[in-house]
Amino acid sequence: MELDDLPQPAFDGLVTTDSLTADGENPNQMPQERFELLCDRIQQRGWVGNAIITDTDGVIADGQHRWEAAQEIGLEKVPVKQYAMDDAERRLIRQELNKIKGSHNRDKDAYEYDKILSGGYGEPLEELATTRDEDLEQMLDEVTETAEAEDISDGVDITPDAPDNPKQPPAVQSGDVDPHQEWEDSSDTEYENEQKLPRYAEVKVKFKDEDAMNRFADMMGQTVTKKTNVLHFPKSEEWSMVNNRVNSEGISSNE
Questions:
Q1: Rounded CA gap, 209 and 191, in Å?
Q2: 18, 68 Cβ separation under 8 angstroms
Q3: Which of 160, 180, 194, 246 is deepest in the core (most CB within 10 A)?
Q4: Is residue 44 part of a domain?
Q5: Which of 52-66, 98-112, 184-198, 222-236 is least confident?
Q6: Of 64, 81, 99, which residue sits at a domain end?
Q7: CA 242 to chain centre
């Protein structure tokens, strides 16, 4: 089967933004912060998304947020595909295109974020993570810990046998080093839990209302919004995911 064998749009090309309309009933809502990011990305990278899908009257089935972003930044024309469809089919297509999508794997997201940061795109990635309520630091900590655990095992099966006496540590099934014996033989057996970032303390703060949040922000001398996940005091570039990377040794500069 060729692409031309599939159903084709009645029109495929550029139309003026003011020739399109929305029905005002789109169930897919976009937060203002994410909308502003969409506008910014279109200006920076161009129209990298799909064409807007409409019926032959120009009523949008898919791509309303891109259309609104185009209007916001003053774009005169946008790419559009128009299909012959009634109102019910247009709404069905909207539901399908909004919901027939894959889901993101958190571990793979973290690995990809690590590659993006290594490539020097920390600032746009941090903006994206903020709009999605993602904690970059926590995700990278998790992927670092996973990678370190894989390095330590190095392919050796160290699965312990179930102990006869549950109060005794299990024996090592295979491998050259018994970690229990190594611990006993060590001259320094004091355990130190190294953290990924040097923290003195962490305190969770819950606000009664928005006024309380704003008063706290004024007192801290920092910006606090409903999207803020982590706040460091005193504020320092040392904590920035944009300028620094996090690894098992602590903080290292990207510069």
A1: 42
A2: no
A3: 246
A4: yes
A5: 184-198
A6: 99
A7: 15
